[in-house]
Amino acid sequence: MDKKIISTAAIFGMIAIILGAFGAHALKKILSLEQLSTFETGVRYQTYHALFLLFIGILTDLPQKTKKTIYYLTTIGVLLFSGSIYLLATNDLTSFDFKIIGFVTPIGGLLLILAWGALLLNYLNKKS
């Protein structure tokens, strides 16, 4: 599981850098400041959670079951949260109206919160 978690962290990190550069260079010319700021929020949260997964992957005292739970909550959370933000921020660039998927953004955010909560609960319930 650790290899899968760290690999996903690396992929999320690489994609965040690519999208950040794309936003800063290519999208800067065609998006409004508000849309660009929204896009950057997606990149920022994806980066945070790439680092979070990396941290989870290298922890040695975290049970595999907890790691698996955190992995799935974080992965699905990033895809829903950051993914929907990318689509909503660039909505004007396509003929499809991505505003109809806007409801998944808070669901993704909730999954990310639950992933952090799973880590917290694991350590609160741990016997010293």
UniProtKB/TrEMBL annotation:
Name the domain of life.
Bacteria
Per UniProt, which keywords does this protein have? Membrane, Transmembrane, Transmembrane helix
- What are the subcellular locations of this protein? Membrane
Pfam families hit by this protein = DUF423
Q: Does the record's keyword annotation contain Metal-binding?
A: no
What Gene Ontology terms describe where this protein resides (cellular component)?
plasma membrane
Membrane topology term reads: Multi-pass membrane protein
- Indicate yes or no for the key word Transmembrane: yes
Query: Any stretches that span the bilayer, and where are they?
Result: 7-27, 47-63, 70-88, 100-124
Name the family the entry cites. Answer: Belongs to the UPF0382 family.
Q: What is this protein called?
A: DUF423 domain-containing protein
